[in-house]
Amino acid sequence: MAFSAGFNGITENSADFYADFTGGDASFSGYRYVRLDVAGDTYQIRSNRAGGSSSSFDETITGLEPGTRYSWEAQMGYNDGTGMTWLDIYDSGSFTTDEPAVTIEPWSWTRSNGSATNAQTQRAYDVIMGNITADNFAHEVWNDLVDKVAEMREAKGYTWDRAGGTYPSASGCKMSAGDRLTAAAYNGVRYNIGSVFSTGISDQSPGDQITGYKIYHLTEVLNIIIDDL
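^ that's the sequence the OP posted. Answer follows.
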């Protein structure tokens, strides 16, 4: 007799159990069973059909935690009409559920992305489109963009990259009330987007004009990356 079992179709919260038994009594007419223990929970799974020398089993185990390793043990048994009999036939192993899916909201110019209000974000868009004066660009909007880039990089499995000290840290790229956007801060954000997906824009030198297009284009590329997560 041979018995083997395992799991496939593993997701964040479920896993598909399967098992096969061969070499049994061909005259057997009842159902065979598997007693499956998964991390302390026990399931009794009936064979897909009754009788015969072989049996197959399948069951979807739900309610699992994402990113968790589960050990399991499966034991064969049968019911011949007089009650359950469990055999000294086992299989065992372990599996790990998928990590939770990462969901990041794309950058928006019509609503808040964090600390800036909806109105501040919308006014910042009007600034970069050249519709209103630069003093309407709230520093909170830029800081939200820095945070969104850092969030994207974390979702990709990266940390903020200073390229050996060439660029500021994420916190060093942020602005305070009354600050003007510097080339260093812009370049740090541009690099941390562009090292994942090319922006087609080079670093700016101190004194270069950082146009609204250059800021808007960064958010477009950022959203391409986020959409692909």
